[in-house]
Amino acid sequence: MTTSPFSLDGKTAIVCGATQGIGRATALEFARAGARVVIVGRNEDGLAKVLGELQAISSAAHESVKADFSDLSGTEKIAHDTARRLGAVHILVNNTGGPAAGTAIAAKPQDYLAAMSMHLGCAQAWTQACAPSMREAGYGRIVNITSTSVFTPIKGLGVSNTVRAAMANWTKTLASELGRFGITVNNVMPGFTKTARLEALFKGKAARGGMTVDEVEEGAIATIPAGRLGDARELAHAILFLASPAASYVNGVNLPVDGGRLAAQ
After folding, report:
1. Which of 15, 32, 12, 35 is nearest to 23 (CA)?
2. Does pTM top 0.70 for this prediction?
3. HSE-up of 259 (CA within 13 Å, CB side)?
């Protein structure tokens, strides 16, 4: 029987920020595809809930790891300890929530440093921890979750726009460095996707603009050719593709999953 090129049988995947939203949806899709999934997050209750969902999908030795990405040195130790204990990691999804909304000019220098540490710094720590076993296996998939703000900054997300763009260039740099070892590094850029993060952003924009949340949502949808918000599972399907053997020749791309919003701008 021919194995599907989208199968993750025999693969171990680490998914960061996996207690909700896109991270959770990705972890579940990986498990459905046959992977052993190690979820990372800071919320113990959230980790326990998602771990239970993974165990209901398959009997693989799924695990959860608690890590607070606001603590870079602590996260670095956890990343290396986890990778060493697992022995082989084939797939890494770097995914971190935030940063907080606000204009670029109003942000303090420390806000930029903290965001760079939480996003780029922690992603670098996990990547350095996992890359050696990927190289040894001749198979590695690193998928970084950022935002369409990489191409077009989003008004009111000054710090986020900046750090997401840095993540995108880091992705392309790693792709050129690691490609010869059978490791691909790609960047997924979600558009307006139904998550707790988007709900919070819409509420904040509504409060600042004297609008209702429904009005803010309608305005966002009006910019999307698909005529609706995205679903987290739709993002997870794109990430699954990039993590699979089917994407072996896809390396260093910035992939919008946004219903056509960027194309319409």
Report:
1. 15
2. yes
3. 18
